[in-house]
Here is the input.
Amino acid sequence: MQLRKRHAETSPRLRETPLIVCGAALTPLPEGALWWADERILVVADLHFEKGSAFAERGVALPPYDTGATLTRLEKLMEKHEPETLIALGDSFHDRRAEKRMAKPDADRLIALTAACDWVWIEGNHDPAPPRRFGGSVQGEMTVGPLTFRHEPRPAPSTGEIAGHLHPCAAVRVRGRRLRRRCFVSDTTRAILPAFGAYAGGLNVLDRAYAGLLPGRDFHAWMMGRDAVVPVSATRLEGD
Here is the structure.
């Protein structure tokens, strides 16, 4: 993949919907990534490369194209935003054998992506040590300005935390129709990102797993649509 040298222009739509965490203005993208324009950092969570092939090994028939689809979305985002740094928030590979199952064309595409910017793999519970041959650096967590990037969110208060792991999604009723979407979730002191991987599922933000992270209903779910991300107050959300 060839990346342009100049910086891409930020569209008016992206400037209109900042997500503020500890004073940092972040843009939740409808593709499921977080863009920090001031630092030119692109953040993705839970890529789960080779989840499809892992299921196939257990006899679950899924089309083996999830890694390629996830890479295509990543390539498009990097071409558009030209990040100086990309932070992958852990569980980038579905398991420790994912490297061996990944097709060579997909492996080559990933190597090209990690060479195009300062790529940081945050350790996850599925992949505590991402394979070295794909490039990039590995860290347990990473702090930039007021924000700390890690895989698994910690109990509140965890000021400035940007995490993944829980694959948040949210449900809301609009004109009598129930909509359920992947989402970003934030109370302005922290944010949890949706899973970026093509086959990754979602856990409703009203599930008890979030109770110690986002106590009460003083937060918003930034629900992903096809062309926009819409903030919805937790008071409007429905459980599963």
Observations:
- The chain has one domain: 16-139+158-238.
- Residues 16-139+158-238 form a domain with the Purple Acid Phosphatase; chain A, domain 2 fold (CATH 3.60.21).
